[in-house]
Amino acid sequence: MELECYPMSDQPCDMVPGRQSRDWMDAFASRHPYRCLPLNMANTTGWEILCPISFTAEWNGGPSQNDLVITADRHAPNLHHIVTSHFSRGVMTMHPQYLFRTPPGWGLLATGAPNHIKDGIAPLTGLIETDWLPFPFTMNWLFTRPGRVKFERGEPFCFITPIEHRKAEQFQPVIRSLESNPVMKGQFEAWNRQRTDFNKRLASGDPDAAKEAWQRFYFKGELPEELGAAPETHANKRRLKSPRLG
User: Cα–Cα distance between 168 and 170 in angstroms, integer?
Assistant: First the structure.
C-alpha cells in the first residue's frame, strides 16, 4: 500500500514518521510517561509534517484576519505559502504543501501531533477523503485566548494518519454487563486483585514493589494469573516507513 505525496512547492515541508519523544514526558522523574504504552503508540502512529521556518503568531482577540499577526524569525518571502490568517477569529492556517492520494476507501486524519502540547493554541482535526480529492488541504490551529505562540523550525504542525473511514460506519456499539462475559470478567478481576495488592505493597514501602515500580501487563502484552494470552497482534513499538522518492 502506498501513501502518494505530491509536493506542491520546490521546497516542501519535511515529513517524518511520528516520533515518540515529548519534552513534557522527558521532564518526569525516570521519564515515567514513556511507560504508558497508549501514549507511545499514539505518538508514533502517523507521520509528522514539520515546520520549515520559525515564526511567531500573535492574536489580539479580534474577529478580523488582520487581528492575527504572523512574523517570521528570519526573512521568509514565502511566509504566506506556509502560514496565514485566512479564516479570521483567531484561526491560523498552515499549509502541509502536499497533495496526498490514498487507496480507495482510505482517507487521512489530519491533526496536531498527539500529546504535543502548545499553550494558548489548539490544533483543529480534519478527516479528508484523499482517495479522490484533487487538491491539497490545510492544517488549522485555533487560538484559545488572545496571546502569542511560537512555532520552531522542525516542530510538527500537522500529523497525518491513514483511516479506512467507511469501516467505522459498520460498528454497532453494544452495552452489555460484564457478567455476560465470564472470561473477560475473570480476567478483569484477576488484574484488579493484582493491581490492588501491588498498590498496597507500594504504599507500605515494600522494597520488592518499589523495585518493580510499575506493573507492565499491558506494555508486555500479558494477562495476569495465566488467564489466557494476549493476541499475537499486540505491539509495543510502531515503526512507520520514511518517505522515499517514487
Answer: 5
Q: Are 215 and 190 in contact (CB under 8 A)?
A: no
| Torsion angle of C-alpha atoms 208, 210, 214, 216, degrees rounded to 10 | -10
Measured CA to CA, the distance from residue 197 to residue 181 in angstroms comes to: 24
Separation CA 12–CA 98 (nearest Å) = 7
Distance CA 199, CA 214 (A): 10
> Per the structure block, which three cell numbers stand in for 28?
518526569
In this predicted model, what pLDDT tens digit does every residue of 8-48 receive, in sequence order?
A: 988 899 999 999 999 999 999 888 888 888 999 999 999 99
Distance of CA 168 to the CA centre of its chain: 19
Q: Say how far residue 218 (Cα) sits from the centre of its chain.
A: 20
C-alpha 146/C-alpha 59 separation (Å) is 5
